[in-house]
Design goal:
With 173 residues, the chain is α+β, with helices and mostly antiparallel strands. It is built from six helices and five strands, in the order αααββαβαβαβ. A hairpin with a 5-residue loop joins strand 1 and strand 2.
Length: 173
């Protein structure tokens, strides 16, 4: 089950698509994606931004057989080993990247409309992180959030920005 996005309307979707297109070749691509997945990822992400959700994106990734069965992982003492790609890879990738573009879009809206952005829980999780719980109801600086997420593409953004797979996102107001 994906996140519940409070402000996922036509304007937010338009800005999400704009942000995706702005990233172009710099779109984040998971190393879990196989060759087909690498090729189809931009199209699937754009389609979800236009009229889908993180859940529909995850389904499209699974149905398109977009993931490797195994991938390399570095060993702590050097060398590599082969490990199975987690069965949750499609949901994790879809949720984190869809949410990241949603947040970027809302940060732009907040800047353009003179509004604030506030963190809220968008998905119930069995074990919430303390850092996530502490962020709920926090107002964030939309300019800072937008710049940081553009810089990092949502991969390990600075503290104070909703992290992937946390079950939290932002809303206007």
């Amino acid at each position: 089950m994906g996140l519940t996005y409070q402000n996922l309307d036509g304007e937010t979707r338009r800005l999400m698509l704009d942000e995706i297109n702005m990233d172009g070749d710099a779109l984040y691509r998971s190393n879990y994606l196989n060759e087909i997945g690498q090729e189809r990822w931009p199209e699937l992400l754009r389609n979800a931004a236009v009229d889908g959700s993180d859940d529909s994106l995850a389904s499209a990734l699974r149905e398109g057989h977009c993931f490797k069965q195994k991938t390399e992982r570095r060993k702590p003492k050097g060398g590599v080993t082969m490990v199975s790609v987690p069965h949750t890879a499609a949901q994790t990738l879809a949720e984190s990247q869809f949410n990241m573009y949603y947040i970027r879009a809302l940060a732009r809206r907040a800047i353009e409309e003179g509004l604030t952005i506030t963190v809220y829980r968008a998905k119930e999780v069995e074990h919430s992180r303390q850092e996530s719980e502490e962020m709920i109801s926090t107002q964030l600086d939309p300019q800072y959030v937008l710049e940081e997420l553009r810089r990092t593409h949502g991969v390990e953004p600075a503290t104070g920005i909703p992290m992937p797979n946390s079950g939290i996102t932002i809303q206007l107001g």
